[in-house]
Amino acid sequence: MLIDWFTVIAQIINFLVLVYLLKRFLYGPIIKAMDRRQEKIALRLEGARKKKEEAEQETELFLKKNREFDARHEEMLSQIKKEAEARRVELIKEARSRVDADMARWYGAIEKEKETFLQDIRRHAVRHTCAIVSRAIKDLSNADLENRITSIFIERLQNVDNNEREALAQAIQHSMEGIKVNSAFEIPGESAKEIVQLLQKLTTDPVAVRFEILPELICGIELKLHGRKISWNIADYLESFEESMRATIEAKGIKKQPE
């Protein structure tokens, strides 16, 4: 069988021309279209990836803000609870202070009324006791009560111990106001003179003695000198009576304010 080389070469040329034409007008556009499509798909995938990343970032930011909000919310709730508790404690303290103040005023008023009542009882008791003692002494010894009180005071002044005598002497020397003798009655002249003489024996300097009448002493006489005092007073003997009356009143329900 003879080979027709012309035909073979023509077919080869035709095939090459066909391949060129297919590549030029068919495969080339198809490949370019596929490349463009692939690029578009890649761009879309890249855009989708970026959007996904942005969405994830926004989601993370939202979650972070949500966590921060929850934390602030808890912190605010805790702060509100603390402030409410502090306010509650403050209100309780204020209420307790008001109650304590009211109780203090009430106890103060009760104590004042009690002291006033006791003072009234004491004054009446002293006054009536003095009157009874005065009548009793007059009936028994025919001696005036005031003279007897003066005599007792003079005896007490005469019988002071050495320490008291020395203290009185120093008080006389340092006193700028002089010596003051108070009594509930007028001291007779002889008794007053005797008191001055006793005081003069305590110092070599002249002494100035002022006698004053103080009715509130009630059957009493006292010597005041530079912070020192020598006295005799029937009221002193009634202190136990006053304490007894105080105990009786408190036993009936008038109590002192608790500390």
Automatic annotation (TrEMBL):
Pfam families on file: ATP-synt_B (PF00430)
Protein's cellular compartments: Cell membrane; Endomembrane system
Alphabetically ordered keywords of this record: ATP synthesis, Cell membrane, CF(0), Coiled coil, Hydrogen ion transport, Ion transport, Membrane, Transmembrane, Transmembrane helix, Transport
GO terms, molecular function: proton-transporting ATP synthase activity, rotational mechanism; proton-transporting ATPase activity, rotational mechanism
Membrane-spanning ranges: 6-27
Entry GO terms, CC: endomembrane system; plasma membrane; proton-transporting ATP synthase complex
UniProt-listed InterPro entries: Alt_ATP_synth_F0_bsu (IPR017707), ATP_synth_b/b'su_bac/chlpt (IPR002146), ATP_synthase_B_chain (IPR050059)
Statement: the UniProt record of this protein carries the keyword Magnesium: no
Residue runs in coiled coils: 38-65
Membrane topology: Single-pass membrane protein
Function according to Swiss-Prot or TrEMBL: F(1)F(0) ATP synthase produces ATP from ADP in the presence of a proton or sodium gradient. F-type ATPases consist of two structural domains, F(1) containing the extramembraneous catalytic core and F(0) containing the membrane proton channel, linked together by a central stalk and a peripheral stalk. During catalysis, ATP synthesis in the catalytic domain of F(1) is coupled via a rotary mechanism of the central stalk subunits to proton translocation. Component of the F(0) channel, it forms part of the peripheral stalk, linking F(1) to F(0). The b'-subunit is a diverged and duplicated form of b found in plants and photosynthetic bacteria.
Family statement drawn from the similarity comment of this UniProt entry: Belongs to the ATPase B chain family.
Subunit structure: F-type ATPases have 2 components, F(1) - the catalytic core - and F(0) - the membrane proton channel. F(1) has five subunits: alpha(3), beta(3), gamma(1), delta(1), epsilon(1). F(0) has three main subunits: a(1), b(2) and c(10-14). The alpha and beta chains form an alternating ring which encloses part of the gamma chain. F(1) is attached to F(0) by a central stalk formed by the gamma and epsilon chains, while a peripheral stalk is formed by the delta and b chains.
Name of the molecule in the record: ATP synthase subunit b
Organism expressing this protein natively: Candidatus Desulfaltia bathyphila
Organism ancestry: Bacteria, Pseudomonadati, Thermodesulfobacteriota, Desulfobacteria, Desulfobacterales
